[in-house]
C-alpha cells in the first residue's frame, strides 16, 4: 500500500507539476526524519505525473555515492535515456569528466569545467522546451559533491524553463552538504517542506486500510504513541500483527504486536539517520533514561551534537514525551545488531560513569549485572546495597540476580560470608524451590577459613534451618568472636538455637556473655523477639513476653531485616496461648506476604496460621493453610521447619477422620535432622496423636514418652510447646490406667503458670477425666469455662463431652443430653467428625449435615431481651455449670442465680436448662 495521502504535501506536488507544465522552473526540497515517507512521497509524485503524462527523471543517491564523482549526474542521464531523451550531445562530455575525476587528488577539485557545466545545463533546457519534465532526487544528502554543485547551478538560474526539481534529504552534518543546502534554500523559487509523522487522524486512516474503521479507531492511540506517526514503523507493526496471526493464532487485544519487522524498521531508521544518532540511541537504550549530559560524557561528543541526535530520534517517533526510548522493543532493537561484547562494554562504562556521578546503587547495580563488576573496591558493596533496595521495593527477581552476581564476583570468604545468607534469604522469599541452588555456595565457603566476623552467624543459621547440622556444628566450633558485635550475635545465636535446635548448643565456643549496653538498632527487633521467646520457652507464658512480642509486631514493617523477629514474635503469641492476637497478626502478615508476592514468607506464615488454626480447633483452615505452605516450598526447601506444616496437616487430617490422607502425610520423607529440632518434636507429637486416633495405643504412648524425654534433655519441656503429658495420659485412660493418667496430668498442671489459658484448660480436661466425684465435676466445669475463653473450640468440645459423660454417670440425664448436644455441634463445626459421632452416635454420615468453619447455632432475637446479669447467668448455665458453680463464678448467692434463671426461662419461653439457646454457650462477650 502507498503512503496515506496527506492533503498539504500532495498540494505541493501538484504545484510543482503545474509550474513545470507552465514553463516556470520550481524546486521543492523535502526534509524529514528517517521513515517519515519521503520516498513514498516521490512515488506519489510519479503517479501524479503519469496521470498528466509528464516524464519524471528519477535518481536515488545511496550512502556510497558521495565518494563517486558525478555518480548522481550519471544516474540522471540514464533515467533521461529511459524516457527517450537524446543524450548523445552530453554523453561524451560526462564520460570525459568522469575519467578526469578518477585522477583528482582532492574532493574539492571540480571534475566538471565551467564550459562543460554550461553545456550540460543548456542541454537540459533544450529538452525541457520540447517536453517539460521533472527531476526527482531521493536522498540528496548522499549525492557526490560534483553533482551537488551542478544541481545548485541549475537552481541558481531562473531560466531553467519547464524543469521542476523535487529532492528529498535527511539530516546531515556533512560540511559540504551544509554549504550546498544553505545556498539552495537562498534561491527565491526554492521551497522547503518538512515531512513529519502522521497525526492521529492520519494513523487512523492508515490503520483503516488494514483493520477497518472500528478497529482502527480503537488501535490508533496506542499505535500513534508508539511510532509518533512514522509510516515505516506503522507498516512494520501491521506486518508483525499479521505474522502473529499466522504463527501463533489471532493476536488478541488492540495493543501493538512487536516482532522482527518492527525491530528491523527501528534499525533502518537509526542507520539512515545523521551520523552519531545511532550511538546516542544505543546509549539511551542502555541507560533507559534521558540524560543528555550523561550521554555527552559517555560519548565524548558535544552537548549540541547530543541534543541534535535526541531531536532527530524524537522526530522519527522513537522517544516518549520524557525523552526516553519509548517501548522496550525499541530499546532492544537499537541494541540488536551490536555484538554482545560491545553491549557489555556499554553497560560497564555506564556503571562506572553513573557511580562517579553519584547515581543510586540500584541503577548502577543493574548495569554491573550486564557489564560485569569492575576491578574496583566500590563494586561489591554497591551491589549489596542495590540488592537491598530491590528487596525493599519488592523487586525480587532483580535482587536475586544482583546477589547471585555479587556472590560470583566475590573473591574472598569474608565477602562470601556476608553475601551468601542474603542470597539464600532472597531466593527463599522469591521462590523457595530455588534455595538449593543458592545453598551450593556454602560448600565453597565452608571449604576455606571462616572469617571472624558476625556475618558468619547468619550463615550458620542458614545451615541449621536447612538441616545441614554437621556443617553448622563445625562452623560453630570454629567461631572466634573478635568484637562486641560478634559477641552479641553469638549470644543471639545461642538463644535461637536453644529454642530451635538445642543439640547444637554444645558446639558453641565457651565465651563470656556480652556486656550489657545499648543494642545496635539493626539487632534490636531480633533481640527483643528472642528474649520474649526465651521467656516463654524457659519459664512458660507470661505477660512480659507477650508484651515484648506485641511490641515487635506493632512496630516493625515486614522486611528482610525484621522477618525473623516478626516470625519469632508471632510464635511467642502462639506458645503463650494468646490465640486471638496470634490469629490477627498471622492473617495480617500472611496477607502482606501475598500482596508482595513473597512465596517463602507466604509459606512460613501460612504454616504458622495452620498451627494457630489447629490450636483453635479450625480443622478446615488448618488443612488449607498447611497445604498452601507445602505447595509453595518442597520439603527439601523447608529444611528443619518442614515439621511445622506437616504437623498441622497431620493433626488436621487425623482429627477430621481423614486417615488415608494422614497416612500419605506420614509417608512424606522428612530430613533426619528435623528430629534434632523443636519442629521434629511437634511432628512426633502429631504422629502420636494419629496412632492414638487409630487405636495403636502402645505406639502412641512410645511416641509421646520419647518426645518428652528429648524435650526434657533440651530444657525445652513446656506444655504450651508440646503437651506430651496430657496426650500420654489420654493413652493411659484408654488403657484403663487412671492412676498414671492422673499423675501425668498433675505433673503437667504443675508446669503451667497460674491463670486462664488454653494449655491449663486442656490439662484440667484430662485431669477431670481421671478424677472422681465432686473433684471431677469441679475440674470439668473449670476446663469447659477456661477452654471456652481460650478460643479452642475442639478442646472445648472435648471438655463438654467429658462433662456430659460425668453428668450422665451422676444420673443428671437432662443436663448430660444438653451438654452432649452442644459438644456434638461444636465438634461438627470444627470438622472433627469422629469426635462428633462418638459424642452423639448415629448422627449419620458426614454428608448428612452441611458443616462450615463457623458454628451455626440457633439463637433467635429473644436473647436480646435479657439483661446483662441475666445473660451472664444464662451463658454459664448453657455451658453446663451448676447453680452453685455459677454463684461462685459471679460472686453472688445461689438464690440470686435461681431468680435470674427464672426470669431467663420466662423471657425465652423455655422450661429447663436443656432448652436454653446453644448460642448463649458460645457468647464470648460473657467471660465472667
UniProtKB/TrEMBL annotation:
Keywords recorded for this protein, A-Z: ATP-binding, Nucleotide-binding
MF terms (GO), sorted A to Z: adenylate cyclase activity; ATP binding; DNA binding
GO biological process, one term: regulation of DNA-templated transcription
Highest rank taxon of the organism: Bacteria
Keyword Amino-acid biosynthesis: no
Domain HTH luxR-type span(s) in chain numbering: 859-924
Database matches in Gene3D superfamilies: P-loop containing nucleotide triphosphate hydrolases, Winged helix-like DNA-binding domain superfamily/Winged helix DNA-binding domain
Any single Gene Ontology cellular-component annotation: cytoplasm
SUPFAM superfamilies (UniProt xref): C-terminal effector domain of the bipartite response regulators (SSF46894), P-loop containing nucleoside triphosphate hydrolases (SSF52540)
Record Pfam families: AAA_16, GerE
PROSITE patterns listed in its UniProt record: HTH_LUXR_1 (PS00622), HTH_LUXR_2 (PS50043)
InterPro entries found in the cross-reference section: AAA+_ATPase, AAA_16, P-loop_NTPase, Sig_transdc_resp-reg_C-effctor, Tscrpt_reg_LuxR_C, WH-like_DNA-bd_sf
The protein, known as: LuxR family transcriptional regulator
Species whose genome carries this gene: Streptomyces gardneri
Amino acid at each position: 500500500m502507498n503512503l496515506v495521502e496527506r492533503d498539504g504535501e500532495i498540494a505541493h506536488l501538484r504545484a510543482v507539476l503545474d509550474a513545470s507544465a507552465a514553463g516556470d522552473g520550481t524546486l521543492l526540497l523535502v526534509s524529514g526524519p528517517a521513515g517519515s515517507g519521503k520516498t513514498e512521497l516521490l512515488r506519489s509524485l510519479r503517479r501524479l505525473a503519469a496521470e498528466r503524462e509528464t516524464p519524471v527523471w528519477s535518481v536515488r543517491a545511496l550512502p556510497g555515492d558521495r565518494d563517486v564523482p558525478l555518480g548522481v549526474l550519471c544516474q540522471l542521464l540514464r533515467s533521461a535515456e529511459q524516457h527517450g531523451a537524446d543524450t548523445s550531445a552530453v554523453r561524451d562530455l560526462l564520460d570525459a569528466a568522469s575519467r578526469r575525476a578518477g585522477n583528482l587528488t582532492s574532493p574539492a577539485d571540480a571534475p566538471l569545467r565551467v564550459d562543460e557545466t554550461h553545456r550540460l545545463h543548456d542541454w537540459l533546457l533544450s529538452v525541457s522546451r520540447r517536453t517539460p519534465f521533472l527531476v526527482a532526487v531521493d536522498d540528496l544528502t548522499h549525492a557526490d559533491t560534483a553533482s551537488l554543485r551542478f544541481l545548485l547551478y541549475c537552481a541558481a538560474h531562473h531560466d531553467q524553463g519547464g524543469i521542476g526539481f523535487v529532492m528529498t534529504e535527511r539530516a546531515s552534518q556533512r560540511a559540504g552538504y551544509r554549504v550546498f543546502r544553505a545556498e539552495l534554500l537562498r534561491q527565491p523559487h526554492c521551497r522547503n517542506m518538512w515531512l513529519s509523522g502522521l497525526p492521529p487522524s492520519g494513523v487512523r486512516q492508515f490503520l483503516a486500510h488494514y483493520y477497518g474503521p472500528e478497529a482502527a479507531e480503537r488501535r490508533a492511540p496506542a499505535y500513534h504513541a508508539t511510532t509518533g506517526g512514522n509510516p515505516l514503523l506503522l507498516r512494520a507493526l501491521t506486518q508483525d500483527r499479521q505474522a502473529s496471526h499466522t504463527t501463533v493464532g489471532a493476536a488478541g487485544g488492540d495493543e501493538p504486536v512487536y516482532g522482527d519487522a518492527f525491530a528491523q524498521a527501528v534499525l533502518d531508521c537509526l542507520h539512515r539517520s545523521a551520523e552519531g544518532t545511532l550511538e546516542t540511541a544505543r546509549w539511551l537504550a542502555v541507560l533507559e533514561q534521558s540524560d543528555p549530559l550523561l550521554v555527552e560524557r559517555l560519548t565524548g561528543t558535544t552537548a549540541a551534537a547530543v541534543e541534535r541526535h535526541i531531536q532527530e530520534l524524537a522526530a522519527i517517533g522513537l522517544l516518549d514525551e520524557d525523552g526516553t526510548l519509548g517501548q522496550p522493543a525499541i530499546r532492544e532493537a537499537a541494541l540488536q545488531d551490536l555484538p554482545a561484547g560491545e553491549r557489555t562494554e556499554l553497560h560497564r562504562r555506564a556503571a562506572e560513569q553513573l557511580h562517579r556521578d553519584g547515581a543510586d546503587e540500584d541503577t548502577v547495580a543493574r548495569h554491573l549485572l550486564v557489564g560485569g563488576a569492575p576491578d574496583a573496591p566500590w563494586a561489591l558493596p554497591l551491589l549489596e546495597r542495590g540488592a537491598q533496595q530491590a528487596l525493599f521495593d519488592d523487586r525480587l527477581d532483580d535482587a536475586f540476580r544482583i546477589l547471585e552476581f555479587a556472590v560470583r564476583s566475590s573473591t574472598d570468604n569474608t565477602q562470601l560470608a556476608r553475601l551468601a545468607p542474603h542470597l539464600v534469604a532472597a531466593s527463599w522469599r522469591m521462590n523457595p524451590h530455588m534455595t538449593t541452588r543458592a545453598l551450593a555456595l556454602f560448600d565453597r565457603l565452608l571449604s576455606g577459613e571462616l572469617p571472624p566476623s558476625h556475618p558468619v552467624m547468619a550463615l550458620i543459621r542458614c545451615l541449621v534451618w536447612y538441616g545441614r547440622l554437621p556443617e553448622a556444628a563445625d562452623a560453630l566450633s570454629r567461631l572466634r568472636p573478635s568484637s562486641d558485635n560478634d559477641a552479641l550475635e553469638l549470644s543471639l545465636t545461642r538463644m535461637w538455637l536453644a529454642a530451635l535446635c538445642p543439640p547444637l548448643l554444645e558446639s558453641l565456643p565457651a565465651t563470656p556473655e556480652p556486656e550489657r549496653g545499648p543494642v545496635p538498632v539493626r539487632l534490636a527487633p531480633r533481640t527483643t523477639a528472642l528474649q520474649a521467646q526465651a521467656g516463654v520457652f524457659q519459664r512458660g507464658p507470661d505477660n512480659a513476653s507477650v508484651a515484648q512480642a506485641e511490641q515487635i509486631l506493632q512496630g516493625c514493617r515486614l522486611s528482610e531485616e525484621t522477618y525473623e523477629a516478626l516470625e519469632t514474635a508471632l510464635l511467642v503469641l502462639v506458645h503463650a496461648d494468646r490465640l486471638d492476637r496470634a490469629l490477627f497478626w498471622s492473617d495480617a502478615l500472611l496477607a502482606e506476604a501475598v500482596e508482595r508476592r513473597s512465596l517463602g514468607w507466604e509459606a512460613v506464615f501460612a504454616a504458622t496460621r495452620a498451627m494457630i488454626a489447629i490450636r483453635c480447633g479450625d480443622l478446615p483452615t488448618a488443612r488449607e493453610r498447611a497445604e498452601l505452605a507445602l505447595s509453595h516450598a518442597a520439603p527439601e526447601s523447608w529444611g528443619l521447619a518442614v515439621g511445622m506444616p506437616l504437623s498441622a496437616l497431620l493433626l488436621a487430617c487425623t482429627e477430621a477422620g481423614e486417615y488415608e490422607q494422614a497416612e500419605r502425610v506420614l509417608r512424606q520423607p522428612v530430613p533426619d535432622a528435623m528430629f534434632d529440632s523443636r519442629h521434629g518434636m511437634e511432628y512426633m507429637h502429631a504422629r502420636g496423636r494419629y496412632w492414638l486416633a487409630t487405636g495403636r495405643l502402645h505406639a502412641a504412648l512410645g511416641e509421646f514418652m520419647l518426645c518428652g524425654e528429648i524435650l526434657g534433655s533440651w530444657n525445652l519441656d513446656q506444655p504450651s510447646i508440646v503437651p506430651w503429658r496430657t496426650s500420654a495420659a489420654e493413652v493411659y485412660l484408654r488403657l484403663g490406667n487412671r492412676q498414671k493418667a492422673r499423675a501425668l496430668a498433675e505433673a503437667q498442671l504443675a508446669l503451667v503458670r497460674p491463670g486462664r489459658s488454653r494449655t491449663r484448660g486442656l490439662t484440667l480436661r484430662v485431669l477431670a477425666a481421671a478424677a472422681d466425684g465432686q473433684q471431677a465435676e469441679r475440674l470439668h466445669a473449670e476446663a469447659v469455662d477456661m477452654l471456652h475463653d481460650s478460643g479452642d473450640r475442639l478442646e472445648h468440645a472435648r471438655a463438654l463431652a467429658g462433662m456430659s459423660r460425668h453428668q450422665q454417670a451422676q444420673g443428671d440425664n437432662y443436663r448430660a443430653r444438653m451438654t452432649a448436644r452442644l459438644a456434638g455441634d461444636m465438634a461438627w463445626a470444627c470438622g472433627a467428625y469422629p469426635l462428633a459421632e462418638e459424642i452423639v452416635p448415629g448422627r449419620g454420615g458426614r454428608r448428612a449435615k452441611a458443616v462450615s468453619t463457623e458454628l451455626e447455632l440457633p439463637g433467635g432475637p429473644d436473647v436480646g431481651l435479657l439483661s446483662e446479669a441475666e445473660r451472664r447467668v444464662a451463658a454459664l448455665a448453657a455451658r453446663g455449670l451448676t447453680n452453685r458453680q455459677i454463684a461462685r463464678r459471679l460472686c453472688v448467692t445461689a438464690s440470686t442465680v435461681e431468680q435470674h434463671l427464672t426470669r431467663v426461662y420466662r423471657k425465652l419461653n423455655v422450661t429447663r436448662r436443656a432448652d436454653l439457646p446453644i448460642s448463649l454457650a458460645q457468647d464470648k462477650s460473657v467471660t465472667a
